[in-house]
Specification:
It is a single chain. The chain is α+β, with helices and mostly antiparallel strands and 126 residues long. It has four helices and nine strands; from the N terminus they run βββαβββββααβα. 19% of the residues lie in helices and 35% in strands. The two termini are 14 Å apart.
C-alpha cells in the first residue's frame, strides 16, 4: 500500500498536500482500493467556502457512492477537470493526476489535526 511520507491524511481516507496557502486534496490509495473502479466524480463546490468536515463532492464506484469531506476549512479554489472525462485517474494515480480539489486554506492551525503517514498507516492496519 502506498502512503507517501510528504502528505497528511484524514480519518476519512483523504490525503492533503500543502503548496503555500493552497492544499491539494484527493483520496488515498487505500480508499480507491476499497471503492473499486471509480466511474464518476461529482464536485460542484468550486468557488464555495466550506468548513472542515463538510461534504465537497461524491465519488461513485461500481459498487458504492461515497461522500468526500473537507479535510480543512477554506475555499474550493479549483477542481480537477480531468476527472470529468477520466474518473479512473483516481484508481490509476490517486496521489498524482487523480487529485480532486485545491483549497485556499482558511485556518492553517487545522492542519495540526491531520494524521501523519505513520498514524494513518496504523489506523488502516487496525
Amino acid at each position: 500500500m502506498n502512503i507517501p511520507e510528504n502528505l497528511k491524511y484524514t480519518q476519512d481516507h483523504e490525503w492533503i498536500r500543502i503548496e503555500g496557502d493552497i492544499a491539494v486534496v484527493g483520496v488515498t490509495d487505500f480508499a480507491q482500493g476499497e471503492l473499486g473502479d471509480v466511474v464518476f466524480v461529482e464536485i460542484e463546490t468550486e468557488g464555495e467556502t466550506l468548513d472542515k468536515g463538510e461534504t465537497f463532492g461524491t465519488v461513485e464506484a461500481v459498487k458504492t457512492v461515497s461522500d468526500l469531506f473537507m479535510p480543512i476549512g477554506g475555499e474550493v479554489a479549483e477542481l480537477n477537470e480531468a476527472l470529468a472525462d477520466d474518473p479512473e485517474l483516481v484508481n490509476k494515480d490517486p496521489y498524482g493526476e487523480g487529485w480532486m480539489i485545491k483549497i485556499k486554506i482558511a485556518d492553517p492551525s487545522e492542519l495540526d489535526d491531520l494524521l501523519s503517514p505513520g498514524d494513518y498507516k496504523k489506523m488502516i492496519e487496525a
